[in-house]
Specification:
Helix content: 40-55%
Strand order of the largest sheet: 4-3-5-6
Distance between the termini: 61 Å
Number of helices: 8
Order of helices and strands: HHHEEHEHEHEHEH
Largest sheet: 4 strands, parallel
Low-confidence stretches: none
Radius of gyration: 22 Å
Mean pLDDT: 91
CATH class of the largest domain: Alpha Beta
Number of domains: 2
Structural class: alpha/beta
CATH architecture of the largest domain: 3-Layer(aba) Sandwich
Shape: globular
Oligomer: single chain
Strand content: 5-15%
């Protein structure tokens, strides 16, 4: 990298800091940016400069937005009786990509992880509780945190708190957890014990 101009070298070094980007890929991306038409590069640079200042958290669900309320919460066709709790916006996008869900969301922006000193106060879980205390129209809360140790701990914490809210408010809503298990086409010999356990727990009549 010593032979690169300083400006190009700095861009490559920055790109190398991105997740999953190594030195060679960072260099290729830097050269790709250099070859872009100047108008495209300026447009990209403008969006990059405004990324932080223009990106906000939705006041309802904490999804990313440029307005006070995100497009999902603004959509009057969404079923507000069902709230799915996800760890991050990336998880929300997975649901939206497949168009398999018509409810609304709550984004935690993290998960409870005691080993890394992340507790409930470090994620947006109290905002969920405050939201549900006022929402007597909610019929179901789906806990869609990831099926790892931290995700399970987060789901259990939320479930316990939601049961307290149900007793406190008298609101009658279901608390459900995403079903996890073997994907289609999977072979049992390659499945780990946690996947098999979830497959057993979530078995259906046949």
């Amino acid at each position: 990298m010593n032979g690169l101009p300083t400006n190009l070298k700095q861009i490559a070094l920055f790109l190398e800091r991105l997740p999953g980007i190594g030195e060679k890929t960072a260099n290729r991306l830097a050269f790709y940016l250099l070859r872009l038409p100047e108008a495209d590069l300026k447009n990209f640079a403008e969006h990059l400069v405004n990324l932080k200042s223009k990106t906000k958290l939705c006041k309802k669900c904490l999804n990313l937005t440029e307005n006070e309320i995100c497009l999902i919460c603004e959509d009057n066709k969404r079923n507000e009786e069902i709230v799915t709790v996800v760890e991050d916006v990336i998880d929300l996008l997975s649901f939206e990509t497949g168009k398999i869900y018509e409810g609304v969301y709550h984004v935690l922006h993290g998960k409870i992880d005691p080993l890394n000193h992340i507790g409930p106060e470090d994620i947006y879980v109290n905002q969920l509780f405050a939201r549900l205390k006022k929402a007597n129209h909610v019929k179901e809360v789906i806990l869609a945190t990831n099926p790892d140790m931290e995700g399970e701990a987060t789901a259990m914490y939320i479930r316990n708190k939601l049961n307290e809210i149900k007793k406190e408010t008298g609101f009658d809503f279901k608390i459900t957890r995403l079903g996890y298990g073997l994907p289609m086409g999977a072979n049992l010999e390659y499945a780990d014990y946690m996947t098999l356990r979830k497959a057993i727990e979530n078995r259906n009549d046949y």
